Amino acid sequence: MSPTRDLLMRFYEAAVAAAHPATCLPPELPPPPPDGRLIVLAAGKAAGASVEAVEAHYLDRLGLPAARLAGVAVTRHGHGRPGRVIEVVEAGHPVPDAAGLAGAEKTLQLADSAGPDDLVLVLVSGGASANWIAPAEGITLAAKQAVTRALLRCGANIGEINTVRKHLSRLKGGRLAARAHPARVVTLSISDVPGDDPSVIGSGPTVPDPSTLADARAIVARYGLEIPDEIRQALENPANESPKPGNPAFADLDYRIVARPQAAFEQVEAKIRASGLDCLLLGDRLEGEARTVAAQHAAIAKEFAAQGRRAVILSGGELTVTLRGKGRGGPNQEYVLALAAALDGMPGVAAIAADTDGIDGGGGKADDPAGAYVDETTVARARALGLDPAAFLADNDSTGFFERLGDLLRPGPTCTNINDFRAILVER
């Protein structure tokens, strides 16, 4: 690994470490209930690591009897950790599968069993929307999979995607809190969405939902989505409206965000400056089409180079890709490919973009790449192999491009998620 690539990877790893459950969860865990059970319901890419942190805290540090602890955690395939008391289920993401369906049913059963003396501890992280798949009445798993694929392909942002999801579920959009009522519910979340909106993180299973069925229908119409008839009928059914503010289930709402992208990026910024480099933090909430944002960032890098600045251009958020080709990839890989094309071998500039969960798009496998790396040699090496960056970009085949060059990043599942990480190093 080149020194430049190693440096950029160390910045990425610092962001991941700042949001790992082992770091951010223990200080926020509530005391166990005096008499009842502690019921842990977790979902998302950090769910497995959260179970480890929870069991270590309550069983080992506090000596809570195992008989008073119950729970189930649903996480992405490859992100699981062995639980001693709490069951850990690995399930599909971003497209839900039968394992997620079974895990969500166990989650709802435990929520339904909660009594007034119990404490329901809900742990939400990025990926929970896909992992907790509990279709509303009359909706099949196949139909939920179809609408998920359509939403992912159309270029909708995460808020829009989750608005539709919340109105097709028996768990999302505040419904989990309603199922657990009258037990006390405490939610701790690791945010992976721009703006840290609790109603968007994991599709807000324990908070009031400000969005409506009409909003969901408007999103389907805006993107011209072809959806199964049962989905269309469900979005017309008033029974699928989500719980709103004022619902008794939210009377004693305790919701805390234990890790935010902004805090992680501020730690990385400090690390960059400590290494002797300047840093431009563009924010942790960037959204938009990956290739469009890449062109904007390439222009900033060129300006820095012209000024002779040694700096890192840092950004987070969640970019999107409107699929028009038939290739493989994800928004981080597409961003880096578009960045390489825009820089066209510009000396002294290198960059990485990677999803902090360790997996960027792909087929949902644990060994899918997290992102990719580029430097001033990328375009020349590609052309020497007969590869045209523009052609690969047109086919949305960023994985195929960087696979041939050996520049894919494969850290494996990180067991957390604060979304995209992008860093451009300008050394001239």
Automatic annotation (TrEMBL):
Pfam families: DUF4147, MOFRL. InterPro entries: GK-like_C_sf, GK_N_sf, MOFRL, MOFRL_assoc_dom, MOFRL_protein. GO terms for cellular component: cytoplasm. GO terms for molecular function: glycerate kinase activity. Residues 312-420 form the MOFRL domain. Residues 9-236 form the MOFRL-associated domain. It comes from the Bacteria. This is Hydroxypyruvate reductase.
